[in-house]
Amino acid sequence: MKTLHLKEAGFSAVELLITLFIAAAFLATGYQLYSIIIEDGGNARTQAKASNIAYDFLRRYTPNATNPCTPSTPSATIPAGSLPSPSSATVTISCPGTLGTNTVSKVQVTITYGSPAQQVIHAIFVTE
Question: What's the pTM?
Answer without folding.
Answer: 0.69
